[in-house]
Write a structure and sequence with these properties.
This protein is of the alpha+beta class. It has two domains: 23-231, Beta-galactosidase, Chain A, domain 5 (Distorted Sandwich); 234-598, Glycosyltransferase (Alpha/alpha barrel). The longest helix has 20 residues, at 214-233.
Length: 603
């Protein structure tokens, strides 16, 4: 069986009658602060400026009738193919019409010294054959009529204002403005073989605005591409799945919020877990779980700078007060849940900002934090005294609280003694003991942590295992299974034979084609959770079931191979349609861990 690779090309994905593109029709562009989603038909339908968590300047993704967008589309019927440049987050789309072919090159630009101190979204049209005429439309979001954008003259420039965002539409001479109103711009541009034209938006929030030359912006497309390729070239993995691993690493890099080091769970809000459903969440925050798993993924592929920045950010949040499930990307508590009043993707309301999980407690945060610290040290790094003290207090808190019910890894409303939560508590205490034995943590409470670790393990074996089901249950006396229990293998939990039997039961009861539902009863509420499938692959590989793991991996990535390698949170197992927020960090990092396990890399 040949190793799969990210799709080099994607056939044109046209909008449905309501104006929505399939989610798999989007590629992502980013600069280390914000992320834009560009559709196959040349429309940027999502861009929050200046940061991932900012309000959107373009939001047609969630409101096809009234939302904002930046569209560059041929004025004649076309077909489109697209790909990322190799080892880069620069995206290319080739449009073919009866009159010719042209390439759209898109980059969220960086500068020679890294991230620019402004947002610069650059789009270059390159003529390949014949002549292609494009229509350019820019419509600014009104955020459900909460703001009213407008243009104002500033010297020779027309500056747009969208609430606190100040910006410019810049372009080369061949772009002709046909109409300009406060709501947006209509323009046209043609390119013949060998010609090129460049268009860009430069923007900032509550800050003076630089006006770069369009030639400088065009040159930064290639400089940004070189920077991406240099970064990707340093990643440590040379196995058969390198193309897939690098693409996922590049997607994760887009979610690293460089001003703070935080890692966003995803770049969007409120993309539904089921079309027409109401399980819509804002993922533009940093979860301890996602941060921990991502730091470990970066460490595995030797992206040490990103791992260190993310780990430092995480420790700083923990040092400032009681541990939370998630934090704002700038640090501190995430805002409360609020309905912003948009129609939602394909009518799937509500569209929200904020996240209710900020007030929950999950025992899993202890395991995530300590696993991250242990991996950081295992790769030859050192904990400082303040971080060691913080971790010691967290180990004590875990020892004190593990017997309580919690919200679990899936952030459920009903507190229970979730099996995965208990395993995470065991994981935290096991890693704390190992760190103390290695001289990285104070040993004052080491023996207590050891005793509680063993009590947690005994509690799990007594209360959470069902011999009748041949599996660990979702929680004691439940009749359901939980696919996240595959992670227990990576965590080093004992009872390997019981975990192997649990994986078999999860495949039987939660499997759907190449994918898996999160836990029992989700078949009618949401799609399959992609990270669960890659966790299952990783677990089987670590248990020595390499052939079975590889076959499952190949089957999953083949079923997802109808985009450009940007994965969502979930998928419809019947149609392959993406569901949930994207790019979804948890999916991409789970793929990296699966590939690493398949190559024989220790967790």
């Amino acid at each position: 069986m040949n190793a799969p690779h990210p799709s080099a090309h994607l056939r044109a994905t046209y909008r449905d009658p309501d104006g929505f593109l399939p989610l798999e029709g989007y590629g992502a562009l980013g600069d280390g602060r914000s992320v834009a989603l560009s559709g196959t038909d040349g429309s940027i339908d999502w861009w929050c400026v200046p940061g991932i968590g900012s309000p959107p300047l373009f939001d047609r993704l969630l409101d096809a009738r009234e939302g904002g967008y930046f569209e560059i589309v041929p004025d004649a019927p076309f077909e489109a193919t697209r790909r990322y440049r190799e080892n880069s987050n620069v995206l290319e789309t080739v449009f073919s019409t009866a009159g010719g072919r042209a390439r759209l090159v898109e980059s969220h630009n960086s500068g020679s010294a890294g991230r620019l101190p402004w947002s610069e979204l650059a789009r270059r049209l390159e003529g390949l054959e014949g002549q292609v005429r494009f229509v350019v439309r820019i419509v600014f979001s009104r955020r459900a009529d909460a703001i009213n954008p407008y243009f104002a003259s500033a010297g020779p420039h027309d500056v747009f204002h969208a609430d606190r965002v100040l910006g410019l539409f810049l372009h080369s001479d061949g772009v002709h403005i046909e109409q300009k109103e406060d709501t947006g711009i209509l323009a046209t541009v043609s390119v013949g073989a060998g010609e090129h034209e460049t268009l860009a938006i430069v923007a900032g929030e509550d800050e003076p605005l630089v006006v770069p030359d369009i030639g400088e912006i065009d040159a930064r497309i290639e400089r940004s591409d070189a920077a991406w390729r240099e970064w990707a070239g340093k990643l440590r993995y040379e196995g058969e799945f390198r193309a897939l691993l690098v693409r996922s690493a590049l997607a994760l890099k887009l979610l690293l919020y460089s001003p703070s080091g935080a890692i966003a769970a995803a770049a969007t809000t409120s993309l539904p877990e089921r079309i027409g459903g109401d399980k819509n969440f804002d993922y533009r925050f940093a979860w301890i779980r996602d941060a921990g798993y991502t730091i470990k993924a970066f460490l595995r592929i030797r992206a040490q700078e990103e791992a260190k920045a993310a780990f430092t950010w995480l420790l700083r949040q923990l040092q400032q007060g009681e541990e939370k499930v998630l934090y704002a990307l700038e640090g501190g508590e995430a805002p409360a849940l609020e309905d912003v009043g948009l129609d939602g993707y394909r009518g799937s309301a509500p569209v929200v900002t904020g996240n209710a999980a900020t007030s929950q407690h999950q025992h899993g945060i202890y395991g995530d934090i300590f696993e991250t610290a242990a991996r950081f040290v295992a790769y030859g790094n050192i904990l400082d005294a303040r971080s060691a003290e913080t971790l010691s207090h967290l180990a004590d808190a875990c020892a004190d609280r593990w017997r309580r019910k919690d919200a679990g890894i899936w952030e459920l409303q009903e507190p229970q003694h979730y099996t995965m939560s208990k395993i995470s508590a065991w994981q935290a205490l096991a890693r704390a003991v190992e760190l103390a034995d290695g001289g990285q943590l104070p040993t004052t409470c080491r023996d207590r942590w050891c005793r509680e670790r063993d009590r947690v393990a005994a509690w799990i074996e007594t209360h959470c295992w069902s011999e009748a089901r041949g599996a660990y249950l979702f929680y004691p006396e439940s009749d359901e299974l939980d696919a996240s229990l595959a992670l227990a293998v990576r965590f080093g939990f004992d009872s390997r034979e019981r975990l192997r039997r649990t994986l078999d039961a999860v495949d039987r009861e939660l499997g759907a084609g190449a994918f898996h539902y999160r836990y029992g009863g989700m078949q009618d509420e949401e799609g399959c959770f992609l990270a669960c499938t890659f966790w299952m692959v990783e677990a089987r590989a670590l248990l020595g079931q390499t052939d079975q793991a590889r076959a499952a991996f190949v089957r999953a990535v083949a079923a997802l191979d109808h985009g450009v390698g940007i994965y969502s949170e979930m998928v419809d197992p019947d149609t392959g349609a993406y569901l949930g927020n994207l790019p979804q960090g948890l999916t991409h990092l789970a793929l990296i861990h699966a590939v690493s396990a398949l190559s024989g890399d220790e967790p």
